[in-house]
Amino acid sequence: MIDDAIRVLAGDCTVIAEDADREEYRGRVTTIVKPDNTVLVHDIDGYQPVAWLTRADSVSSDRADDFTLVAKKGTQTLRIAAHDRDGFATYPASAAGTPVGHCPDCGAALVRSSGVHCVGCGDRYGVPADATIRDEQCDCDCGLPRMRVERGLAFNVCLDRSCESLDAAVREAFDREWDCPEPDCDGDLRILRRGGLIAGCEHYPDCDTGFAVPAGVVDGECGCGLPTFETASGTRCLDPTCEKGLARPLEADSAADD
Prior knowledge:
By secondary structure, the chain is mainly beta. The protein contains two helices and 20 strands. A hairpin with a 5-residue loop joins strand 18 (216-221) and strand 19 (227-231).
C-alpha cells in the first residue's frame, strides 16, 4: 500500500507567518501539507504560495471547532486557522515519474523517478541511475520490465532483484577474472557488494585492495594489468587513480608527432 499522503485544508482562513517579522493574511485559501512536512498556502493569484514553510520540524493540527494547523521550523512558525472550512481531506500520494510499464500485481502504471514504483499498490524497485528500462517486448516472465545496466558487460535483468539478480550476473561474468594489482599479493579480485558492487581482493582484510565496478563495459586492459572500461565520460581504468591507462595513448600520440 502507498504509505505517503498529502493533506489538504480549504476554506476562509487566517494565515500567520512568524519569524523575525510577523505577517498575517485572511482569505479563502487552500493549504497543502506534503509528506515531508512542507506546508504551502495557496490563494487565487499567481503560482507562488501566499505563505509556506519547507520541511517543517513539526506539524500539528486541532480539528475541534474551527480547524487549526501549526507548523514550526527553528524560529519560524506558520499558523493556519479556518473560520469557515470548505473541506479537509487526506489523499494518497507518490512521486511522479516517467511511465515504464504496468504492475503485474495490480495493473496500475509503473513510473520511474528515483527508482521505479507502482502508483497503484506502491510496490518499489531500486534502479541504478544509469539503468535503461527496456520496452514491453523485453519484459521478464514475472511481468515486470527488464532494465539494461552496464557493469563490465551490458546486462538485461528484471527490476525485481530477487527475480533476476544484477549482482549474480556480474559475479558470474567477472568473479576472479582479474588479479589483485598489489605487487606482493597473489589474490584474485572477487565481485562483492559493499554499498555498491566492488571488485575486492579475496585476501581481505590482509589486503584491502578494492575498486567500485564502474558503469560501463570492459574494452581493454590498462597498463597496470587491470581492465579498462568505456564509460559515459570516456575510457578509464578499474582503478580510478591509475595513470598508466592514460599514459599509453599519450605516448602513442608523441611517437606519431615524431
